[in-house]
Amino acid sequence: MFFDPIYFLFIGPAFLLGLYAQWKVKSSFAAMSEIPARMSGAQAARTMLDSAGLHDVGIEPVQGHLSDHYDPRAKVLRLSPEVYGGRSMSALGVACHEAGHAFQDAKRYAPLVIRNMAVPAAGFGSNIGMLMLIGGFILQLQPLIWLGILLFSAVVFFQVVNLPVEFDASARARRQLVDQGLIAPQEEQYVAKVLNAAALTYVAATLQSILTLAYFIMRASSRH
Q: Which of the residues 98, 166, 187, 188 is marked catalytic?
């Protein structure tokens, strides 16, 4: 199992796509960081949030490169230094994408609610599920293998539900940036390059989890 070439045939396409997506995100972010904007990422996100009446959602700087995220429990956007204070199309795109998640949270966007509910199961399935799979194959225990597969399915479910959440946040960001006059309509293409590259990373992660699950199902089904 541990050196099974079939496994690499299964996940190879998703792995290569993931590498390409990571390169695309870094190169797109760097390129669009050279395109100036009239305000910082934090200012753009604040304008977007205030336009929806989300005055209680805070914005804080956080350390790390592209460590930007929205914390639904604290109701705060945490933006990396280059996004928080950056005055570029990259900064605006990423900041307003995270503001899009705050929009979703406020409106109880169904895929986001489901995704948040799936987080504990996905974390458990990613860790314990994989241990059960490995242990099941080592000990030749078919029930343990299938239990591990069942738990790992929660990871796949999370990844699949996460796709519309991320796509919708990006769509909201692009729309609001233009509607609020934060960028000119012709500048939307610059923001789109960053957000589309980021979306590709989620597609790659989802594909990898699906193919990994398919591999384990194939291996379990072929055992007698």
A: 98
